[in-house]
Amino acid sequence: MDIDGLGDRFVDALVEFDMVHTPADLYGLTVESFVRMKALADERDGSTPETVKQGKVATKWAENLVASIEASKKSTLPRFLFALGIMHIGESTAKTLATWLGSLAVVRRTPAPVLRVLPDIGDEVATSIAAFFEQEGNEKVVDALLAAGITFADEGAPSPKLRDRLGLDVLLDAAKVPKLGPKSTALLAKTYASVQELVSAGEHNWIIAGVPSAAAANLWAYISDPTNYRKLVNDYADMAWLLDQLPAASATALPLEGHTYVITGTMETLKRDDATERLESLGAKVAGSVSKKTTAVFAGEAAGSKLDKAKELGVPVHTEADLLALLAEHGAAP
Question: Stretch 135-151: mean pLDDT, rounded?
């Protein structure tokens, strides 16, 4: 949870002394808890300071840790998702989930076939995310963190652009039924409004609609398996619920949507992470490398190879003052 001062040494000790079992347990620790943890660790290592033996116990460090833990309750959705330690989920993927799905409640409910339609999320990553939130133990940890007071300042509605990406064909494509290609799944999605309608129509009517007989036979065999059918129905229900959460299609696009920026060098006013978050809040993508598709590079002091690459490719190079002006223009200045 990005807690200042809480390093691996302290975490290991808290776990070893049975004081922490899940991340949520951190939010129940007190100054006394940390003082006791350090005393146990010093006793174990034979390194108890003479001052402590004399009854003089410093607590300022523990007070600072408790304050840092309290401050970490105010988080952002990407930071929280990344901190959960979901396999294959880096900072970039966490930002994608937050940008497209909007809230933790939606992320938790979105099935793997739907996650696959998000940018840069393939089968393996989608399966990993969905599997994480399907595990009861993980769900309890997330619920406990929320109960401890974790909040997100950046939650909102899912992206209305999902409306054009979601349909029955998404679920059928994810099923990977032999010989059932994207043209056939698109045809079925256009012909039938739900899983129930699809199944009620049956194999014969699918063929009449234009699906090859071999593909229709394979799809019928797939759906005839109770486990597959139940998953298809459940995933469709979750997808329909997600579509209901979308704002009106006329929602205004973010001002920097479609723009890609690179930040390099040291900025005097803004830390790079802060600048990145502000640009992303306006719809921009902040990349780690320069390419011909880069809109511009913002270069601070001691800018290195990225600045050279921008000049080589003819990508516009701007200053920190230009960055601040751009943010101010769109109401995102620090």
Answer: 95
CATH number given to 260-329: 3.40.50.10190
266 beta partners: 301
Contacts 24+ apart (CB under 8 A), 77-80: 77/103, 77/104, 77/107, 77/152, 77/154, 77/155, 78/154, 79/1, 79/2, 80/1, 80/104, 80/145, 80/150, 80/152
The Cα–Cα gap between 17 and 222 comes to 51
Report whether pLDDT(3) > 90. Answer: no
For the chain, how are helix, strand and coil distributed in percent, rounded to 5? Answer: 60, 5, 35
Out of 3.30.2310.20, 3.40.30.10, 1.10.150.20, 1.10.10.10, the CATH code matching 75-156 is 1.10.150.20
Q: What is the pLDDT of residue 54?
A: 65
